[in-house]
Amino acid sequence: MGDSKKLDIDIGQDHIVIQRRYDALGAVNDLLIAIWFLIGSFFFLKESLTTDGTWLFILGSAQLLIKPLIKLVSLIHVGRVYKRSQNNK
Question: The whole model's pTM is what?
């Protein structure tokens, strides 16, 4: 591990605030995914609710697409704040 290169850019308090907001958004997204899949699973136990359960699985699956988008937006946002802080020096 001593040979690995790590890039750690310190942009101070702004980075912490930005990262915490995106982490919270990601946690809420993960919680909603779990809820949709859990409720959808219970819906599959009763035949009359199977269609609704399928839609909840589709909703949960669509939210799985949001996870990497949140991470990507977070990285872009932090990069822009860093660039702005470098220009102000």
Answer: 0.73
